[in-house]
Amino acid sequence: MSVLLASKLRFFDTTLRDGEQTPGVSLNPNEKLEIATRLAAIGVDVVEAGSAAASTGEQDAIRLISNAGLPVETCTFVRAVKSDIDYAADNGADSVHLVIPVSDLHIEKKMRKTREQVQEMAWSSVEYAKSRGLIVELSGEDASRADQAFLAEVYAGGVERGADRLCFCDTVGVLTPEKCAAYIPPLAKIAPLSIHCHDDLGFALANTVAAIKAGASCAHVTVNGLGERAGNTPFEELVMALEVLYGYDTGIKKEGIYSLSTLVSRLTGIPLPVNKAVVGEMAFTHESGIHAHGVIREPATYESIRPEQIGRKRRIVLGKHSGSASVEAALHEMKYAPNEQQLKAIVSRIKDLGDSGKRVSDADLMAVADAVMAMECKPVIRLKQFTVVSGNSMIPTASVTLEVRGKETTGAATGDGPVDAAMQVLARSVADAANIRLEEYHVDAISGGTDALVEVTVRLSKDGKIITSRGARTDIIMASVEAMIAGMNRLLEDRP
Question: How much of the chain, in percent, has pLDDT values that exceed 70?
């Protein structure tokens, strides 16, 4: 049963404004429109598209989004400055996030003004924004360090002059759940109140939940927790926490969460931390023998949510922590049926590989299984020659001669780079034997320096079957070719 006070919690997404303030992130108008379209589709209520006064590019983005006919409110950040409000109205924004400093620290040190001056700036800006036909969310910057009586006075005066909503900003992440319980209830009685938290001390999610429980009816969030310094409240974590821990139906289309997170990661260039909650690579990955065994029998033993809920899949990886159950399950998927003694030997070898620091790929497991089960494994594909030509004034081209099931074949292909050309020609060279697709390509430098050993991991698919394979060389192209051929051999292998 829900313990939240708001009958309908609203989500105000600021990925395109606060999230874009992540150092190094810069989104063009079309990229912003792509993210906004996905946010609208997943069910957020408000998209803060940027700061209209910042640049012509920001204005273009706001105009694009507001004219796209999306079922979402288009908002823009504004200061208590008439020109900012004009930019918002002139570029089609539905609402403004009107931010005014409210702590004495910000008023005196940043603004160099008095409380009374700041108060008047806020109120007159609200009146002007309403005269321009805008919805106004009056936001108190650094509210968590403000005199709460003064903050309430600013809010009340803003509402009297037409402000539609209020926002409590924990600008530097110093709020606590206990303070939320004290600060939020009286402010939420003035007008609908949003909570905007930063994660400087790791409390953004906890504080957002606490504020919602205390009466806030809207949460400011960013996809993947992007934002200045340590970021903002992560959209995906808040949604799943409310749904799973508090039984609250957010109305968000949860099955789109992972694809949204990966889209934002790709467009911003900010990778998802591997151990990030909900959307990190390892969130639904199991290696430990005890955990993997439990998950195989009943996923709820070691998972609080099902990966399918957010558009993901569970992964069992093998290494020194793997037990018989996970190894047997992986072998079963590959159509191996070892007896008890063979399984024990395979598990032992997998653990040895893990102890040596090796990541155990599907190809490694198959090679071990083949050896243990005394199966003859003759390669279907043999590399006879391989050449790549590339440079700044020519199109990268790769040529290869392979022996496929005893028949020699030669081919060539171009690509976006030498590695892409190599992947293209290898896939084409076996096209007569099978349609093999490269699903994923990943490269790691094992050590530093230009002569570093490079490890390439590929995921290949054929007729619904997917395997991973790996190559390791000091030459990235040869490592890629090695990984590709090893994987193709496994997919094409003729097993009795």
Answer: 86
Contacts of 186 (CB under 8 A, 6+ apart): 148, 152
- Whether the pLDDT of residue 5 is over 90: the answer is no
Rounded CA gap, 458 and 285, in Å? 18
What are 178-204's pLDDT values in tens digits? 999 999 999 999 999 999 999 999 999
Contact 407, 416 (CB under 8 A): no
| Token reading at 31 | 């990229």
Nearest partner of 221 among 183, 192, 195, 259, judged by Cα: 195
For every residue of 9-36, DSSP letters joined together read: -EEEE-TTTTGGGSTT----HHHHHHHH
Taking 90 as the threshold, does the pLDDT of residue 109 lie above it?
yes
Decide if 151 contacts 124 (C-beta within 8 A): no
Q: Which residue has the tokens 């990229």?
A: 31
Residue with tokens 């020519």: 394
Query: Which residues, other chains included, contact 456 with Cβ-Cβ below 8 Å and sequence gap of 6+?
Result: 441, 442, 443, 470, 471, 472, 476, 479, 480, 482, 483
Report the run of H or E that residue 119 belongs to, with start and end.
helix 115-131
The set of residues, in sequence order, having a beta carbon less than 8 Å from that of 358 and lying 6+ positions away, is 364
What burial class does residue 496 get, using C-beta atoms within 10 Å of its C-beta: 0-12 exposed, 13-18 middle, 19+ buried?
exposed
The total of other beta-carbon atoms located within 10 Å of residue 77's CB is 25
Could you tell me which residues come within 8 angstroms of residue 136 by beta carbon, excluding any fewer than 6 positions away? 95, 96, 98, 126, 129, 130, 158, 162, 163, 164, 165
What tokens were used for 124?
């007159």
Q: Report the SS3 class of residue 334.
A: coil
Check: CB of residue 72 under 8 Å from CB of residue 40: yes
Tokens of 166: 């209020």
Bridge partner list, 221: 13
Question: In terms of Cα–Cα distance, which of 271, 267, 200, 199 is closest to 235?
Answer: 199
- pLDDT of 432 above 80: yes
